[in-house]
């Protein structure tokens, strides 16, 4: 009888959500939901594994692939897969899977919440009430910027970008976008118009970044960009931390070149609480929770299991990143 495949899950996941995996493989799991699996344990487990169920904090690179002679599939609990060396996986015929679409609306809700939070100063206002600094009603107390009828510039008009556009249109915003390629069908379906990156930066009252992290997007938001933004404009990042040069964002905030920032992602996660970005009252910082609703995270976990199970059964998984792989 042939040996059952082995799958290692790099975070503790609810047993009932991974039972699909148990029907096709022996399953090993890291013991903690919060602490990342130590690198040496990940390498040891990868050495035995036919499949890996990973999260963003795991670096799945050449070193790991070299240590994993039987590996056939890596399923990442995210739509982004910048923590995985996809080229190295493809070279070895290893399938890389992600979780697109399932998390689109949940992440768009969060990204649009950041627009409202920075514009209307919601985090500052909540803090003010809780700390007893609400002294009286006064004409400009906690007055922020309007969101309705303003111009929102979406950089990266993919699934989440489009879902943010729909939310913005509900607030009667003027929606402009920049994308790697122009999307005529989207322009027709939604009332949105294309701009060059430079024009979008100059025109927007709120810029929302929703690109993947790639060589082309790394450091895309730098001091030159912040200087061109209106000084009444807000920058929102729900993509990946390194699309922004953080020191340049700090300088732009310090110099008043922009009005504020809403950030769900950072270079270093978790960000150091003493980081200069966190000292500005007009910065709203969240702990990378774009897709973090109970419903969506549950659906993402099940989807990862289905992708792994498909590969182990010799089928093509639904969310295959490296489509050139034969499963
Ligand atoms: N904060 C969070 O928790 C969270 C949650 C989900 C996704 N994300 C991030 O959001 C990204 C987008 O997710 P999605 O599902 O919308 O992906 P998607 O692939 O549907 O959309 C990405 C869009 O960005 C465009 N793009 C790529 N490179 C570009 C460039 N150089 N300039 C302009 N546009 C470019 C693509 O053409 C595409 O339209 C993910 O890759 C991930 O990094 C973050
Ligand atoms: O890329 C993603 O999906 C997020 O960062 C986590 O949901």
Automatic annotation (TrEMBL):
<feature type="domain" description="D-isomer specific 2-hydroxyacid dehydrogenase NAD-binding">
    <location>
        <begin position="113"/>
        <end position="290"/>
    </location>
</feature>
<dbReference type="Pfam" id="PF02826">
    <property type="entry name" value="2-Hacid_dh_C"/>
</dbReference>
<dbReference type="GO" id="GO:0005829">
    <property type="term" value="C:cytosol"/>
</dbReference>
<dbReference type="InterPro" id="IPR006139">
    <property type="entry name" value="D-isomer_2_OHA_DH_cat_dom"/>
</dbReference>
<feature type="domain" description="D-isomer specific 2-hydroxyacid dehydrogenase catalytic">
    <location>
        <begin position="7"/>
        <end position="322"/>
    </location>
</feature>
<dbReference type="InterPro" id="IPR050223">
    <property type="entry name" value="D-isomer_2-hydroxyacid_DH"/>
</dbReference>
<dbReference type="GO" id="GO:0051287">
    <property type="term" value="F:NAD binding"/>
</dbReference>
<keyword id="KW-0560">Oxidoreductase</keyword>
<dbReference type="InterPro" id="IPR036291">
    <property type="entry name" value="NAD(P)-bd_dom_sf"/>
</dbReference>
<dbReference type="InterPro" id="IPR029752">
    <property type="entry name" value="D-isomer_DH_CS1"/>
</dbReference>
<comment type="similarity">
    <text>Belongs to the D-isomer specific 2-hydroxyacid dehydrogenase family. GhrB subfamily.</text>
</comment>
<protein>
    <recommendedName>
        <fullName>Glyoxylate/hydroxypyruvate reductase B</fullName>
        <ecNumber>1.1.1.79</ecNumber>
        <ecNumber>1.1.1.81</ecNumber>
    </recommendedName>
</protein>
<dbReference type="GO" id="GO:0016618">
    <property type="term" value="F:hydroxypyruvate reductase [NAD(P)H] activity"/>
</dbReference>
<dbReference type="Pfam" id="PF00389">
    <property type="entry name" value="2-Hacid_dh"/>
</dbReference>
<dbReference type="InterPro" id="IPR006140">
    <property type="entry name" value="D-isomer_DH_NAD-bd"/>
</dbReference>
<dbReference type="GO" id="GO:0030267">
    <property type="term" value="F:glyoxylate reductase (NADPH) activity"/>
</dbReference>
<dbReference type="InterPro" id="IPR029753">
    <property type="entry name" value="D-isomer_DH_CS"/>
</dbReference>
């Amino acid at each position: 009888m042939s040996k059952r495949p082995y799958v290692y899950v790099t975070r503790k996941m609810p047993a009932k959500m991974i039972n699909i995996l148990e029907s096709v493989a022996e399953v090993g799991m890291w013991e903690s939901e919060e602490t990342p699996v130590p690198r040496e344990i990940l390498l040891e487990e990868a050495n035995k594994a036919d499949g890996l169920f990973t999260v963003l904090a795991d670096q799945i690179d050449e070193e790991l692939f070299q240590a994993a002679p039987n590996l056939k599939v890596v399923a990442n609990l995210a739509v982004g897969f910048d923590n995985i060396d996809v080229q190295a996986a493809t070279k070895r015929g290893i399938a890389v899977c992600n979780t697109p679409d399932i998390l689109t609306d949940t992440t768009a809700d969060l990204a649009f919440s950041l627009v409202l939070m920075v514009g209307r100063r919601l985090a500052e206002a909540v803090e003010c009430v809780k700390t007893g600094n609400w002294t009286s009603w006064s004409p400009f107390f906690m007055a922020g910027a309007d969101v309705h009828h303003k111009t929102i510039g979406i950089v990266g008009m993919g699934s989440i970008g489009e879902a943010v556009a729909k939310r913005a249109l509900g607030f009667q915003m003027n929606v402009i976008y920049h994308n790697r390629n122009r999307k005529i069908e989207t322009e027709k379906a939604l009332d949105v118009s294309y701009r060059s990156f430079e024009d979008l930066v100059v025109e927007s009252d709120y810029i929302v970044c929703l690109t993947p992290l790639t060589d082309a997007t790394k450091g895309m938001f730098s001091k030159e960009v912040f200087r061109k933004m209106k000084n009444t404009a807000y920058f929102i990042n729900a993509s990946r931390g390194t699309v922004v040069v953080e020191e340049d964002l700090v300088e732009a905030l310090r110099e008043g070149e922009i009005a504020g920032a809403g950030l769900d992602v950072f270079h270093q996660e978790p960000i150091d609480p003493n980081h200069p970005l966190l000292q500005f009252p007009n910065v709203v910082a969240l702990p990378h929770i774009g897709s973090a609703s109970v419903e969506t995270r549950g659906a993402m976990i099940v989807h990862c299991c289905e992708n792994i199970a498909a590969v182990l059964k010799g089928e093509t998984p639904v969310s295959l990143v490296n489509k050139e792989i034969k499963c």
